[in-house]
Design a protein that fits this description.
Alpha-D-Glucose-1,6-Bisphosphate, Chain A, domain 4; START-like_dom_sf; alpha+beta; about 140 residues; Polyketide_cyclase/dehydratase; seven-stranded antiparallel beta sheet; Polyketide cyclase
Length: about 140
């Protein structure tokens, strides 16, 4: 298993952050690592989707938890690596605005493989969180 937590702050409200998280059509505007999301239903627990990347590849994922105004969690199987990646995205009110937290957990194969996959998944999280925070203030 491997896990890591990333955080950033924004003057936007948790509701403003969640509005962008739950509207997948906005994702490419604040996450350059995503070109689009194909949803198989509404943004809620149990819905499956496919994340599309700039290199033309894609990965299916499912939403395992969603709470309006708070956040959501996604689960992405990575069969080639023998792991599952969970990322919990939360927006919580803080003293100076909102704290955005991404918590990534990778389980399945050896700890070494989990760490390799996790580090790859999370390599841009600080930049993505910062861009999400800026976009939420618009």
């Amino acid at each position: 298993m491997w896990s890591a937590t990333y955080q950033g702050r924004t003057p936007a409200t948790p509701a403003q952050v969640y509005a962008l998280l739950s509207d997948v059509t906005t994702w490419p505007s604040w996450n350059p690592g995503v070109t689009g999301i194909d949803m198989d239903g509404p943004f809620q627990a149990g819905t499956t989707a496919t994340m599309n990347f700039p290199d033309g590849s894609s990965l299916p994922f499912s939403i395992t938890w969603a709470e309006p105004g708070v956040g959501y969690e996604d689960l992405t199987p990575v069969p080639d690596a023998g792991v599952e990646v969970r990322v919990r995205h939360e927006a919580a009110a803080g003293p100076d605005g909102t704290v955005i937290t991404y918590r990534c957990t990778v389980e399945g194969a050896s700890d070494e493989v989990c760490a390799q996959v996790g580090q790859g998944v999370c390599e841009d999280f600080n930049e993505v969180i910062a861009a999400l925070g800026v976009a939420a203030t618009r």
